[in-house]
Amino acid sequence: MAKRSSLSIRIVEGKNLPAKDITGSSDPYCIVKVDNEPIIRTATVWKTLCPFWGEEYQVHLPPTFHMVAFYVMDEDALSRDDVIGKVCLTRDTLVTHPKGFSGWAHLTEVDPDEEVQGEIHLRLEVVPGTRACRLRCSVLEARDLAPKDRNGASDPFVRVRYNGRTQETSIVKKSCYPRWNETFEFELEEGATEALCVEAWDWDLVSRNDFLGKVVFNVQRLWVAQQEEGWFRLQPDQSKSQQKEGNLGSLQLEVRLRDEMVLPSGCYQALVQLLCREVKLGTQGPGQLIPLIEEMTSTECRQEVATNLLKLFLGQGLAKDFLDLLFQLELGRTSEANTLFRSNSLASKSMESFLKVAGMRYLHGVLGPIIDRIFEEKKYVELDPSKVEVKDVGCSGLHRPQTEAEVLEQSAQTLRAHLGELLSALCRSVRACPAVVRATFRQLFQRVRERFPSAEHENVPFIAVTSFLCLRFFSPAIMAPKLFHLRERHADARTSRTLLLLAKAVQNVGNMDTPASRAKEAWMEPLQPSVYQGVTQMKDFITKLVDIEEKEELDLQRALSLQAPPVKEGPLFIHRTKGKSPLLSSSFKKLYFSLTTEALSFAKTPSSKKSALIKLANIRAAEKVEEKSFGSSHVMQVIYTDDAGRPQTAYLQCKCVNELNQWLSALRKVSINNTGLLGSYHPGVFRGDKWSCCHQKDKTDLGCDKTRSRVTLQEWNDPLDHDLEAQLIYRHLLGMEAALREKHRELSAGTETASVLTGCGEASEDRLAQLLQVLQDLQEAHNCSPVSSLPLEPNYLLELQT
């Protein structure tokens, strides 16, 4: 049993941002921090005060998280990026919005002195004396303090104040993980109401000391407890933290916190078996559970439910059967062929999720090279005469501006070339398409052909396939490659227009060049010969794609399972060690890494033979490295044991914060069930005779910071979490329990019409009754869960409530 917390984040757009550049504009991007840990960096939107990002993320994190903060920055090429402002959302704020926080939030000013983080380890005691009791405060250590100096660290000391007296610890130089082990005593009067204040500061020789945070304790509560010890989260100074909104603009956000208590696998077995049996039975009359779920699911949460169901059945090997059931339901209520799969039904949403989970690697293989070329060329392309800007394109050979006709013709040639290249790549990719995707499209093709068998509908089965493959998968990826992980940054205006026009052409091909698609934008006519040719290519491709026999499907799946497909791959810089200590100068070497469910391997190039670096079962932790260790904030460490059982550490450098967190997430997910995972680690390196982070001289020291194995980003290729998906489906069904009970009463009342038997001899109301019983059993299991009554953090009662 475990508590799982996650944040769904959508960074929509900003408005009325202040100009930070001399051009009167800014180049804004966002950094998202969870408890002061940078997790996400959006793309930069150039030269605008009203940027649109539209980026979505899912972050899994510990239930003890406190706050998510959004920093809007202005990117500068020659100097440090400027901070524009920030929006902070605490856990308490998000809890009050069960459906999520959604709307505009004003940016507030960022005061460096109030950017506190980290925790401090204290022992507090009430010691009896001959005349009076004494309050003893032992300052032991701190971790993850804010780096206030240019060297990436701080020079921390602690100031303890009580009843007008102040005492201070020694200063620990160049460390965000100091250890003091110093004790102070104060005379304690019975009934005293004075609070004990413990403050952390960064010492500076020339300028004023920087505030690092504080903890305030209620002494009366301590008197009752007599003794307490623990880690306490440092808080900002409330008297100074009145942030000013000013004229910093606003940020539109959608943020939802979800806390789920996931029960042991056995608790969900009845629910999973019931749903799987429904899928195996297929469509056999009204009252089935899947149609009921679709009917009672609101439009706003249909995509989420579709994704959860799809992943559940994917884990049970029933994804194709589940989608086939939805295809049949959709075809059963569709009378017009031209409206097929055009709505936001459960079938459409489930198929979208299926393609992203099962087909994203295939999409990257087909589209990636073409998208890269479009970004690199940055050609001016326009087909709409009303939007042509002749001044943007010059004909240098003739030393004159091109005419509008010449611009349009050159644009058409460019787009025809891109479309032809894409269709050719698609036609060559039949064998590369995952077997389960091919088999699903085969089912779809056959079902539609059975439903619309006449000659006038000969194109309908092809359009059914392209409605998903082209209109809901390839075209959206072409228009927004950043959102499909094809590029790290959004396209500039010129490239974005090229991508949009190419996506329109692909849509026309996917629509089989129908008259309706032609009439929408007459200025697309120059591409018509290529579109017409593309329709022939597309039909030939689909014919080959769906021509897969069951034996071939099994053979392909077996072959793929033996290959251990990579969970993540790409170039990284590995830090080589010499002797016992890491080298500082030119010690990073660029290699191509591949992470599978078996090992982390590397090679000189993507096509070179790979050498295993770390066996997956030997990974003990994957964590970030302090910036001061290598002069970069994008270095991670993989702590593992070699074949002899000796502890080793590999240092890998990434190019940006997103890549860093993506690799950390992937490593943490694939090793989450390893034995011997570490609970603590050193964020620094052991150089010379001590750790650079906490200055301890014992190389085998357990670590001065806690590991963050539960902080991960959700990706399309994540390992399936069967229990979590079952819990999310249970939670959704619980929300519609009243409607399900009403439906059950209706079915039970009409026994003559509701007694149609399934293949197993069960009436539909009986299956619904089983579902209601399963929901009741799960609800009782949750109510009996001991975890739900535990506090989020120890020692929270000692903190002064202000």
Automatic annotation (TrEMBL):
Example GO molecular function? phospholipid binding
Q: Does the keyword Cell membrane apply?
A: yes
Q: Which CDD domains match?
A: C2A_Rasal1_RasA4, C2B_RasA1_RasA4, PH_CAPRI, RasGAP_RASA4
Which Pfam family, any one, appears in the UniProt record?
BTK
Any idea where the PH domain is? 565-672
- Locations listed in the record: Cell membrane; Cytoplasm, Cytosol
Which residue intervals define the domain Ras-GAP in the entry? 301-511
What keywords does the record list, in alphabetical order?
Calcium, Cell membrane, Cytoplasm, GTPase activation, Membrane, Metal-binding, Repeat, Zinc, Zinc-finger
Q: Where is the C2 domain?
A: 1-105, 116-232
Give a Gene Ontology cellular component term annotated to this protein.
Answer: plasma membrane
Its record classes its membrane topology as: Peripheral membrane protein
User: From its record, what is one biological process in GO terms?
Assistant: intracellular signal transduction
* InterPro entries cross-referenced by the UniProt entry: C2_dom, C2_domain_sf, PH-like_dom_sf, PH_domain, Ras_GTPase, RASA4_PH, RasGAP_CS, RasGAP_dom
Protein name, UniProt field = RAS p21 protein activator 4
Name its species: Rousettus aegyptiacus (Egyptian fruit bat)
